[in-house]
Protein 1
Amino acid sequence: MRIVLASSEAVPFAKTGGLADVVSALAKALGELGHQVWVIIPHYPQQLPRNLSPAIEPANISFPVPIGTRAADARILWSTLPGSEVTVLHVDQPAYFNRPSLYNEGGRDFPDNCERFCFFSRAVVETCRRMVLRPDVIHANDWQTALIPALLKAEHRKTTGLSNTGAVLTIHNLAFQGRFWHWDMHLTGLDWKYFNWRQMEAYGQLNLMKTGIVFSDMVTTVSPTYAREIQTPEGGCGLNGVLTAHRDSLVGILNGVDPDDWNPATDPHLARNYDAATVAEGKPACKAWLQNHLGLPARADVPMFGLISRMADQKGLDILGQCLDEVLQQDVQMAFLGTGERHYEEMLVAKQRDYPQKVATRIGFNEGLAHQIEAGIDAFLMPSRYEPCGLNQMYSLIYGSVPVVRTVGGLADSVVDTTPETLANRTATGFRFDDYSSEALKRTIFRTLEAYRNRATWTQLMRTGMAQDCSWGRSAKEYVRVYEQAQAKSAARPADG
């Protein structure tokens, strides 16, 4: 198939979260399956890593893009995803994208975000037309590209090379919808007739995520459980009715992990590499290195927990904070890495100050240290309030670090709770709890500590987790089936439909 992945970010060019990892890893996996893949992203000069290889080159293509009552020029650059043959097309418009951050500054969204990403969505479609990519499907991701399905259906039903192009939208996090005041409708360039409660309007506002859901041939989310959760009032963020109405086109596909980036057998960041056969020797070496690096006592017998996260309510930092002192009365160590809301950063820094022999907190993000924590800890904490998919619990499984998670979204789909039955049938991979409360989290941590004391049980949990298929190859094949459905639906629709 000929597949275009449109996204507001992709590694290694620009990243604020898991979206960037997912888009690049999926593109590579699709390419390895034999499909022709293009990734189209904005060009963010200030976000590019130093010594980027391969370099970004001019494509000698530029064109005007209508935006409201005027036009802005789009210049196309190109490169490839490192380690692959996937072409990346970068839409260059300095006024929109040459900024120190992608979406906001000082905690406030850029006031022209609607304009920026309406421009980008139109530029994606126009790039496909002018470069004669003839995609079978354009796969949009989150609200920043959710206008693309509407452009395909409302403007390009008779456009050569786009008339049968299927539209797929992936919802990575429904909490972020691209909601703007109604007068921004003119920035989309679409007829005001579409600004109605069935299509682009929600609660009096222009809603780009709703737009993408309504106009797409297929909609995916990043886990099967999250696909069910967002159809409920509790998880639907106001769009549950729309999603329920389109449930026949809604599919949940669990994200995968890129083995080029996350593999303890080859990871260059680790003190010692290991696999499932050598985890009993390799992981203790990584643990000792991590303890020394973080300034904690180098003890092989102490259970060590880790948390690598954006420090926010969504990630369960509130309930963790409520039970942390009681947990730290036990013989444990904890390593925290991340950045986010200041009061959570200060809370974890204070715990290091109060428990210097037990807690190490690092504020910020360090890719190498993230890998070293995953390899060195015994158990990984992920007590999320909600979690569309989550990647760290899968990294933890691969690295033999037993996940402790709340039973939501992708955490429910990827971690099997430890019970007498799941231990007996050798399917247990971690520990789960249901209630969003500090008491439920504390009980689950204590269950984890009890299991840690039984070395046979703990070794079984590690090795069962490491045997799980978390690869993108599995997920990519599911996306191909969705693409085929989307392309078939689009081809069957009349040109004026």
Protein 2
Amino acid sequence: MIEIDVDLAIIGGGPAGLAAAVTAKEAGVNPLIIERDFELGGILPQCIHNGFGLHVFKEELTGPEYAQRYINQIHELDIPVKLNTMVIDITKDKHIIALNKDEGVLKIIPKAIILAMGCRERTRGAIRIPGYRPSGVYTAGLAQRFVNIEGYMPGKEIVILGSGDIGLIMARRLTLEGAKVKAVVEIMPYTNGLVRNRVQCLEDFDIPLLLEHTVTKIHGENRVEAVTIAQVDEHWKPIPGTEEIIECDTLLLSVGLIPENELSNKIGVALDPVTGGAIVDENLETSIEGIFSCGNVLQVHDLVDNVTQEAINAGNNAAKYIKQKLKEKKELVKTKAGRNIGYIVPQHINRKSLSQPLIFFMRVKKPENDVLISLKANGTILKELKKKFVRPSEMIELKTRTLEIGPDINEIIFEISPGGDN
């Protein structure tokens, strides 16, 4: 077994891992990126559409271009990378056990760890669609890789279940490649992707969007031949008598993403049941001292620019921890989700940090227009922000300068209320 001593081990070489590594290196510590794939960049190399980098680089880039900007910095800063290397365990003393075909088993001994493993797609097994198990059922991300990287078309007549961003983007991509996208079927009364993707990928190409519908059966033994769809009630149950059969040869699933936290769970990192990611403080430090989390493994983002911003925060704070400059944890103040708030990250704040600028990310449970976002402590309003609209598909970023609360207050409540137009 080869032993490697490093300042900072970063598990994952996607956009979060890359930005965290660059930031940590510039802060004066030596990071090591551990990536299980054969290349850096995570999902970005297959995202050949534009729309990336508007916030970070102030210009519009494709996914590969965005990734390459950071890959170039990794090379310029001479940051070591281990590709094709799988982390299989993290011990109680925070030693990382990994392996690859060239070096065998590795024991990596870091002073701090950043978890940046990203997320994976929900598959057919996660949503239990009845019917046969024919070929022609793919996740939207797999279909994206087939078309954009491998050069294969998954099918010619396609139904997409779910309106996540990858599904919407693939509806447009497959149409441009000559396929017929017969419908995008969404169980909710609203799309789960960005508004711009709904407009640019569906409406601009006259692709039908069937809200409050779902696929109830897959037909075909060897290959998908058709799917049955039906309307759903307010409990998301199919309504008898509303069934319709759509002939197709392919079904794409765009039904959500799951943070890859098997390693985190294994070592005892406390996880948030709503986000599926770690419970963190304002430094993005998890329940285990010296282990930080950022990117889609912490919470599923809709913009890679937000992933990068979060990773920069993690990289800076991991460097401070290594240099023993991170504020000692004394007392935590909980952030609590109130009316129409699904979750908040970070889930708690060190009381001493309330006097400094903070960034909170959150998602709402349902769409609303003309609202007021309020932060309250013991009935006192700490901050208010008006928004013309809020959507579950679009993450809300809220920045504060200082939050002043009494020493007896142990939680801050975030809530959405009508009245943003007043």
Protein 3
Amino acid sequence: MSPAKSAKASPLDLLVDRYLNYLLVEKGLAQKTLAAYGADLARHLDHLKAQGIEAPEGVDTAVLLRYLIALRDQGLGPRSRARHMVALRGFYRFLVREKVLAADPSRSIDLPKTGLKLPDVLSRDEVRRLLDLEEKPSPVALRNAAMVELLYAAGLRVSELVSLKVQDVNLEAGFVRVLGKGDKQRVVPIGNHARRRIDEYLKTGRPALLKTVASAYLFVARAGRPLTRQGFWKILRQRAAAAGVLTPLSPHSLRHSFASHLLEGGADLRAVQVMLGHVDIATTQIYTHVARDRLKKIHRKYHPRG
């Protein structure tokens, strides 16, 4: 799984192998994610060996800071350095958990400022216009309305949305079961608006689209096939134009809006992490910056001394 080792592996090499195996077996990370972590950690080990460090006990906060500086000097941008730091944090936390180290040397190091700009988050009014768009009644219109409503209600990835099966939705209990990255399952609650839209689609729209064809998929196109991601985004762009939504849309626009609106409303960060299916809460923390920026604008606009 990890890069090829020399004839005699160092203690750090063996520990990286243990960590990657832990991510595969216990955390169920996808192969692409494992490969990225392995490459980042291999680069880190090469740096340590160049410094004469062969064992984890030789790594402290100063060593990690020098490594980040070396990455910067090698031309890596803030986003790439932040990705490396995420891999290192996970590794050294694992060593503490396995009692290899008494303390985590990465604990006091902040992620590099990435300047990462998320795709634009829709305002609440834009979301309302997008979801409440009046269309001429038809089976396709019922399907499209239910898909957009559910995407925002549960913060799904588009790939997760189009691969949903009928059995994955429990309207009575009000939740949807999602198979996310790394084949990890999560259960996300959905609100009454989404439940009503899906119920109407299941009773009227889906049978008309299927006719005599059987399909396990929740959202179907012709001949019972699932709608493709590209097909859905074409629908969403057309819907946004009809609703007068001017904010540029991306494949994750409604997912980002879901997370940001929850946090703005006071939702717990870890609860949002679970609903989004993020393995690392650091990924979810990106949304707190979006929420804070929005709250600052609201404060400046409406506070008497803003």
Protein 4
Amino acid sequence: MAKLAIITGATSGIGKATAEAFAKAGINLILCGRRAERLAALQASLSTQVQVHTLTFDVRDQAAVSAALNSLPEALKQIDILVNNAGNAHGMGPIQSGDVADWDAMIDGNIKGLLYVSQVVIPWMIARQQGHIVNLSSIAGKQTYPNGNVYCASKAAVEALSEGMRLDLNPHNIKVTNIAPGAVETEFSLVRFKGDAQKSDAVYQGYQPLVAEDIADIIAFTVTRPAHVVLADILILPTAQASPAVVKRQQ
């Protein structure tokens, strides 16, 4: 019987690539995001391979999260895999000149959004005494870098939540995997720099960064391991990167 996965932030980047990788693996999908037109296009693309259902909501809105997920028919609440991918970086600067709106966006999306979705889905997994939760952290959750402050803190929280989930859900046979990518060329930096393409492009110049498909491939591998195997915590870097701030760039 085919597994069923729910992916947040599925309209672009790692979320979209993970949906495509899961479809290739024959995993049915519930795709979540804020942009309905992108969800519809992805559904049309992948529904030739697997069953695809979409939900449009912002993970930062707890009422919207609850209403959308609880609207699922019972058959679609039999979720095997939850990928908490939604989240972003907003702004980059020293703590003393930080933008409160940016702080709120990162805390609400990266931490609270993950919690809001998990709070609804986890009881369904507990009822079945099985499931696999994949949380998208970052190298920034393991090592803080200058001007990263609140973003790094939000991803450090994801690391702690992954460990806490693993402890609390161990009696219920639920796997938890923490995925921590390094530099991945997606819309990430474009969002962080408020649409400034020049600043965004500079992040990835002079070396070969990861791409979304690299991370999706590892997520797909992780969720298709035997029942007794958990890949608990995975740090993924491009060859050129040794830490958040140490990257070998070509001159």
